[in-house]
Amino acid sequence: MASNAAVPFWRAAGMAYITYSNICANLVRNCLKEPYKTEALSREKVHFSISKWTDGKPEKPTIRSDSPEE
Amino acid sequence: MFLFLQSPLTRSHRTVRRGIVRRYEVDMVIVPATTGQMGVLPGHVATIAEFKPGVLSVHEGSETTKYFVSSGFVFIHANSFADIITVKAVPLDRINANLVQKRLVDFTQKLS
């Protein structure tokens, strides 16, 4: 069977729905009026440590601190 | 109809907290589906619709509350429950129109 019906534009752009949805949300967040904007942006900041596992052992973790950006 | 509004990352003017689930009984909701503005009344056929960014308006008696939703879905169930799922639903008066214009211009320029 051939591929499905027309691919949604975000899928065609190489992203998943969640990626698209988060980008939309960031755009909206950046357009808010003041107290709400800083609240929303600060709420979305994340800070985490991530490490790959090989052979059942974790490798050196990297720390990431992402704030919502465009 | 019951409107079950779930907004994973932010919610409306009443309280600002994550994961707020609000349940309202309303008369009608107009949602910005990708196929256009869709009015949802009690007794609507069960439907799933994806949103494009747009205005969601909730009608309760003679009052209308409008929110801008960034994207998301509405699941309308056969028992007149509608679940609206979005990452961001902001009341319209929280949006800064100047910022919107400015960013629209910026992005349009980037496109061309």
Automatic annotation (TrEMBL), chain A:
<dbReference type="GO" id="GO:0005743">
    <property type="term" value="C:mitochondrial inner membrane"/>
</dbReference>
<keyword id="KW-0139">CF(1)</keyword>
<comment type="function">
    <text>Mitochondrial membrane ATP synthase (F(1)F(0) ATP synthase or Complex V) produces ATP from ADP in the presence of a proton gradient across the membrane which is generated by electron transport complexes of the respiratory chain. F-type ATPases consist of two structural domains, F(1) - containing the extramembraneous catalytic core, and F(0) - containing the membrane proton channel, linked together by a central stalk and a peripheral stalk. During catalysis, ATP synthesis in the catalytic domain of F(1) is coupled via a rotary mechanism of the central stalk subunits to proton translocation.</text>
</comment>
<dbReference type="GO" id="GO:0042776">
    <property type="term" value="P:proton motive force-driven mitochondrial ATP synthesis"/>
</dbReference>
<dbReference type="GO" id="GO:0046933">
    <property type="term" value="F:proton-transporting ATP synthase activity, rotational mechanism"/>
</dbReference>
<dbReference type="InterPro" id="IPR036742">
    <property type="entry name" value="ATP_synth_F1_esu_sf_mt"/>
</dbReference>
<dbReference type="InterPro" id="IPR006721">
    <property type="entry name" value="ATP_synth_F1_esu_mt"/>
</dbReference>
<dbReference type="Pfam" id="PF04627">
    <property type="entry name" value="ATP-synt_Eps"/>
</dbReference>
<keyword id="KW-0375">Hydrogen ion transport</keyword>
<protein>
    <recommendedName>
        <fullName>ATP synthase subunit epsilon, mitochondrial</fullName>
    </recommendedName>
</protein>
<comment type="subunit">
    <text>F-type ATPases have 2 components, CF(1) - the catalytic core - and CF(0) - the membrane proton channel. CF(1) has five subunits: alpha(3), beta(3), gamma(1), delta(1), epsilon(1). CF(0) has three main subunits: a, b and c.</text>
</comment>
<comment type="similarity">
    <text>Belongs to the eukaryotic ATPase epsilon family.</text>
</comment>
<keyword id="KW-0406">Ion transport</keyword>
<keyword id="KW-0496">Mitochondrion</keyword>
<dbReference type="GO" id="GO:0045259">
    <property type="term" value="C:proton-transporting ATP synthase complex"/>
</dbReference>
<keyword id="KW-0999">Mitochondrion inner membrane</keyword>
<keyword id="KW-0472">Membrane</keyword>
<keyword id="KW-0066">ATP synthesis</keyword>
<keyword id="KW-0813">Transport</keyword>
TrEMBL record, chain B:
<dbReference type="InterPro" id="IPR036771">
    <property type="entry name" value="ATPsynth_dsu/esu_N"/>
</dbReference>
<dbReference type="InterPro" id="IPR001469">
    <property type="entry name" value="ATP_synth_F1_dsu/esu"/>
</dbReference>
<protein>
    <recommendedName>
        <fullName>ATP synthase F1 complex delta/epsilon subunit N-terminal domain-containing protein</fullName>
    </recommendedName>
</protein>
<keyword id="KW-0472">Membrane</keyword>
<dbReference type="Pfam" id="PF02823">
    <property type="entry name" value="ATP-synt_DE_N"/>
</dbReference>
<dbReference type="GO" id="GO:0045259">
    <property type="term" value="C:proton-transporting ATP synthase complex"/>
</dbReference>
<keyword id="KW-0813">Transport</keyword>
<comment type="similarity">
    <text>Belongs to the ATPase epsilon chain family.</text>
</comment>
<dbReference type="GO" id="GO:0046933">
    <property type="term" value="F:proton-transporting ATP synthase activity, rotational mechanism"/>
</dbReference>
<keyword id="KW-0406">Ion transport</keyword>
<dbReference type="InterPro" id="IPR020546">
    <property type="entry name" value="ATP_synth_F1_dsu/esu_N"/>
</dbReference>
<feature type="domain" description="ATP synthase F1 complex delta/epsilon subunit N-terminal">
    <location>
        <begin position="20"/>
        <end position="79"/>
    </location>
</feature>
